[in-house]
Amino acid sequence: MRIDLHIHTCYSYDSNLTLDQLSRAVLRKGLDGIAILDHDEIEGALRLREIAPFEVIVGEEIGSAHGGIGALFIERRIPPHLGAEETIARIRDQGGLVFIPHPFSRAVPGRIDEHKLYKIMSQIDIIEGYNARAPRPTDDQRARDLALLHRLPVAAGSDAHFFWEVGRAYTEMASFK
Q1: How large is the angle between the packed helices 43-51 and 19-29, nearest 10 degrees?
Q2: Are 172 and 1 within 8 A, CB to CB?
Q3: In what order do the strands lie in the sheet with 33-36?
Q4: Side-chain half-sphere of 59: how many Cα atoms within 13 Å?
Q5: Counting CB atoms within 10 angstroms of each CB, which of 63, 90, 105, 176 has the fewest?
Q6: Is 0.85 topped by the overall pTM?
């Protein structure tokens, strides 16, 4: 399966990508599915999952007190501004996966505090090792190196906020059902 694991919709404060536009883009790009990681919100992901002809992973990019922490496979919104450990506990309470988006991307706002990242490494499930919006390849390489060091899976995502960005990066995987 080809899954873009990092997309934002108009339910996120920084995107105007409608669910209809997103659906058309996913189909046009030939993706098998997506993960919606709206900032501090899951409503768009829940709505799209009900109508999409492709797989939709409900997720959230949570603005914790220590920066961005992603959640995959959740059903309830996790509030922002909690500490990293509390945010992770709430993801785990839902059976979700802890996903760290763009951990070293200097040009991307909201990344996790690097010192906190190292403290929570044992609680992380997936690291985004390629973010299509990250302008510095060395930042993504650092993320891949960190994942390798800790034997964690590496994911890729477009971090799409606009129609044309959808599918610029994706992760290939076996079916997750």
Answers
A1: 60
A2: yes
A3: 154-157, 126-131, 97-100, 67-72, 55-64, 33-36, 2-7, 171-172
A4: 27
A5: 176
A6: yes
